[in-house]
Hints:
This protein is of the alpha/beta class. Helices cover 45% and strands 14% of the residues.
Amino acid sequence: MERIQVAIDKARQKRASDKAAAPAVSDAVRNIVSANQSESLKEAWAHLSVFTPKPAHLEDNRVVAHQPGAPSGPFEIMRTKMLLQMRANNWRRVAITSPTSDCGKTTIAVNLAFCLARQADLRVLLVDLDLRRPSVSPTLGVTRDLQLSRALAGTEPPQAHMMRIGANFAFAANKTQTANSAELLQGVQAAETLDRIEAQYAPDIMIFDMAPMLVADDTIGFLDQVDCALLVAAAEHSTLDEIGKCDADLAARTNVLGVVLNKCRYRDNAESYGYGY
């Protein structure tokens, strides 16, 4: 019996010794794996087709946050507040939606993506999931036949419908509307495709431009795949009842970052604080 106990004690000591020595080996392995992943990540981004938007086209579509300056000021404030909250909660995926159409949600989404991408250490991915009325391509001025819905259905590779602006801003878009969009977005195949995209490109922030909430069930059915949501309402267009209903529906299914009041015609000059914003 004593010999058995001695053997058990020796085995325990060996396991403890092995465990103590493991971290150094584990750290070395992790460093190698991390370096390999970093190279794979750079390669994945480098293989995306490059798109260079025309400044005049961006300005015509109210996209101003691609460069610093007074017009970009509100988006910089929005970017910082959003980043602080998302980092505090380890969130990566944010949906941007609105109660109805013509609230400017795509304009907000594109400006936010540009503003975030101006931070060189952030990788930003903008995904157009308003499959009923896709607007990211025309807002950016893309003429290429991008149709992410085919990738979501599993018939084509996602990278065929993705492009890159600069080193750290990628987008996935659709040129035309998609039939049965709600069923597609709620399907397992679409979820797996988005997971693969996230795994391959490892964006720090994924912005999903979603359909308006009160016109279809596309967004409601997709909210379980995001960490949080931002609601865009239009001044003198969106009603308090619409905003309240959408806010409640969002809160029941995900975390609500806030409500952006867009298309305001009047603003107190004191808000600029003398900086010309």
